[in-house]
Amino acid sequence: MTAPAPIDRAVLEDACATAGFDVTGAEPIRRAENAIWRLSGGKVARVARPGQDAAAVREVEVARWLERNDVAAVRALDVQQPITAAGGHPVTFWQELPPHESGTVADVVKLLKQLHALPKPDLDLGCLDPFVRVADRIDASSTLNEDDRQWLRDRLENLRNRWGSRPSGLPECVVHGDAWVGNVAVTEDGPVLLDFERASFGPPEWDLVSTAVKLTTTGAVSTAEYGEFCDAYGTDVTEWEGYELLAGVRELRMTTYAAQHAASHADWQEEAQHRVDCLRGRVGAPPWKWKGIM
Known about the structure:
This protein has 294 residues and is of the alpha+beta class. It is built from 9 helices and 10 strands. It has 2 domains: 9-96, 2-Layer Sandwich (Phosphorylase Kinase, domain 1), CATH 3.30.200.20; 105-279, CATH 3.90.1200.10. Residues 1-5 have low confidence and may be disordered.
């Protein structure tokens, strides 16, 4: 498997024609696995990879459910969507956010408290799959040697086998699935939750671990910041008996994500290899001070 090619503008034009939106002057905000475009009139289009139709439906449904429950989140436009455009790309349309900056750990926990407290909706979200795309990412990690890639495959199998018998914890709810500061934007009205591609029914600990590993694994969050996070939520997931398992899955996802994209970004190869070396015990004890790659 190779890294996907950037999505062509023709896909956007096809989707906008179907939705009745003017594509004149459209500007790319980000063009990678998914492409984000700014349209006129305060609209944003998100063009996903072929085969991601279910995830696109989920994003729109969850956004509308959050809006009905007064949770601050990015808003889906009131059109029939997603639209399947040229090449099988699902496309969704959103209200553009006002001027904003990246969220903080405190912003993440504020929104998670609201999300996790909501009653389960009558939506077909499915159960959390924490291993989605990990095997593909390992296959795409062409800058790693085969010994490292086989170790990652073995690690994936071990974690997958343990997942089904994980310790019980907090009551299951709708989880965001990728709850980190990059998926929170802060406007003058406060923090806003973004990106519901991985939203599903699952253990709330999965969302909490995303911040906890920034303390225990990567060193990106200070002890004081993490303490405030735990105080705000009301629990410390690192003290739960299932933490090692969930943290291990998160670490594997973060490592294989970096390794996949290192195949097409030479400047990320060193970081990807470093993460593998950390997991394989070649570096020393965590936290390992991992660097962000995007």
